[in-house]
Amino acid sequence: MPIPPKLTDAQRKSALAKSTAARQVRASTKARVKAGELTLSAVFELAQSDEAIAKMRVVELLESFSGVGKVRAIATLDRLSISQTRRIQGLGSAQRAKLLLEFPDRVAATKRGKLIVLSGPGGVGKSTVAKSLRQTQTFWVSISATTRAARHNEVDGVDYYFYSDAEFDSAIKSSLFLEWAEFAGSRYGTPRKPVEDALRDGKNVLLEIEIAGARQVKDRAPEAVLVFLQPPSWEELVSRLEGRGTDSPERRAARLALAQDELAQSSFFDLNVVNERVEEVVERLIGLATHQ
Ligand code: 5GP
User: Measured from the CB, is residue 181 less than 6 Å from ligand 1?
Assistant: First the structure.
C-alpha cells in the first residue's frame, strides 16, 4: 500500500471540509431523486459539472429511486453487467443508455406538489412574504375569495376574488372552498379546485390564510405543512398594528386582543418561523418546498 502523503493541519481541515460538502451534495441529490424531483438523466447531466455527484456509486443512485431499494439496484446492475462498485463517472455511454431505458424520465410527471400554509397573527407580515413568493418559480400562490371591499390598490382576480355575500353563500353551498373563515367581520375562503389542479400538476402551493382556516386545511389535507409566522417580539407586533393608522382606540384594542389569541395557537403548527427578515422567511419556505 502506498504511504499516504503527510498533510499539514490546514490541508487536513480543508480535505475534511471538502469531503463533508461532497457527502451533503450526494445526500441531497439522493433525496431529490427519491422525491421525484430529479430523473436519472438529470443526475447524469449534473455529474458532468459536479465532482461529488460524478463520484457517487451507481448502486447508491439507483437505490434512491422510489420503490427500488438495494436488492433491486444490485440485481439491475448484475443484469446489465455493470460492476456494483462502478461510479457515475466511470459509466460508458452504452451502460448509461441501458440504465436510462430501465429508469425512464417518468418521475416528475406524477409527483404531486407540496401544500404549504402560511398563517400567523394579523400584522405579522404574511402578505409581504406571500407577495415575494409569488415572484419566484417555486410556488403557485392561491388567490382567495373574500366578502370584504377591495382596497384602493387591489385588483379583482389578482389580490382576491371579491364576492358579494350571496356569491360567497352559494360557493359554500356548492363546496367550492377548501376552507373558509370569518375574520374582522368579513368572510375569506380558498377556492378548492385551482389548488387541487396545481398540486396534481406538481406545483408547490402556498396558502396565506388566517388561523381557523389553517386548522381546517390540516383536517382536510393532513399532508399540508402548516407554518406559523411569529413577530420578532410582542412590542414589534403592537407597533406594526398601531402603524396601520386609522383604527379607533376600541378597534385597536380588539386587534391586539385578537393577536394575543392568535399567538396562543402557534403550537398547533408544524413549524414556527420568526419574521426577522422577509428574505429569510422566503428562503425557508422555498427550502421546505424543495427538500424532503
Ligand atoms: P386582509 O383583509 O388584511 O387582506 O386579510 C385578513 C386576514 O384574512 C389575513 O390574516 C389573511 O391571511 C386572511 N385570509 C386571506 N385569505 C384567506 C382565505 O382564503 N382563508 C382564510 N381562512 N383566511 C384568509
Answer: yes
Q: What is the pLDDT of residue 151?
A: 93
Q: How far apart are CA 217 and CA 209, in angstroms?
A: 10
CATH number for the domain formed by residue range(s) 115-290: 3.40.50.300
Q: Are 12 and 4 in contact (CB under 8 A)?
A: no
pTM above 0.70, yes or no: no
DSSP state of 57: B
> HSE-up of 210 (CA within 13 Å, CB side)?
18
Q: How far apart, in Å, are the Cα atoms of 291 and each of 114, 136, 245, 288? A: 10, 16, 40, 6
C-alpha cell at 74: 444490485
Q: Measured in angstroms, how far is the CA atom of residue 206 from the centroid of ligand 1?
A: 13
Q: Is 147 in the pocket of ligand 1 (CB under 6 A)?
A: no
Over residues 21-43, the mean pLDDT reads 91
CATH of domain 10-102: 1.10.8.50
Q: Which atom of ligand 1 is nearest to the CA of 214?
A: 22
Residues whose CB falls within 8 Å of the CB of residue 54, separated by 6 or more in sequence, listed in order: 47, 48, 87, 88, 89
Q: How far is the CA of 249 from the centre of ligand 1 (A)?
A: 23
**Where do runs of H (alpha helix) occur along the chain?**
9-34, 40-49, 51-54, 58-63, 69-79, 93-102, 107-110, 126-134, 165-173, 192-200, 211-220, 234-242, 249-263, 278-290
Q: Where are the domains of the chain?
A: 10-102, 115-290
Tell me: the pLDDT tens digits for 89-110?
A: 999 999 999 999 888 775 444 5
Tell me: pLDDT of 211 over 50. yes
What is the CA(262)–ligand 1 centre distance, in A?
A: 13
